[in-house]
Amino acid sequence: MERSDLVRRTKHLLRLYGFFPKKRLGQNFTADSELLERLVSHACLTKDDVVLEVGAGFGFLTQLLSSGCKKVVAVEVDPPLVSFLRKQLPGLQNVELIEGDILKVSLPQFNKVVSTPPYSISSPLLFRLLENKFDFAVLVLQKEFAERLAAFVGTKDYGRLTVTIYYHAEVELLDYVPRTLFYPPPDVDSMIVRLTPRAPPFKVDDESLFFELVRTLFTQRNKKVRNALILFLRKREITGKDAVNLADSMVYSTKRVRELAPEDFGILTNELLKKL
Hints:
The protein has 276 residues and is an alpha/beta fold. The chain contains 11 helices and 9 strands. The protein has 2 domains: 3-197, 3-Layer(aba) Sandwich (Rossmann fold); 207-275, rRNA adenine dimethylase, C-terminal domain (Helicase, Ruva Protein, domain 3), CATH 1.10.8.
């Protein structure tokens, strides 16, 4: 199907069923057949794969996925779209349609994710996905968000999200996606991202302390580690001279927070744990 055909079909379905793309649900429908084929190609599908799709929309990607894998688990939150899909997809024996919020519904097992999810849920969605075991996810994400996932240490995009995701998964930026490939077009461009879960690449003795430390220190990203640590210690009711002495004694105390690699946060956590 040509791009113009997909745009026409999207507009036709919107008119025919009286749908209005809902901004609060981030509804920008993929209206480019080549983009859909690229997503499927990056997913390297086999007949053993069970694929999760987040936000099935009009089912264009769902249909394409179903022809290349064992089963598609398509999750859609918008009731009018769900009833449309129930009429459209009965011919596809290998599609399971789940109505509900991807952040709340219980999910069957899957081993791959291929999706163009709403931008507004990108961050919680990634962490929800990473609670599950799967091979990898191929996702279309807002370009700015994607760049934060894969940012280099010290750059303006590098931050809490980069470190936290790095701890759980490997991130690859695969393709640029202009906003014109959606209808209605969003305000931003996108990227195709592949996310591959893995065991943490460094050892942390207390994960909750690690994540709390990363979160707190990045609120002071341009400050020296010692100053950001004093704030962190204050929250734990270690104040005054005790906090200053402890912060000064820590590894990396004179570096800026943004200059710490993810592994450095791990080392800092383990040292802090011993000294606390």
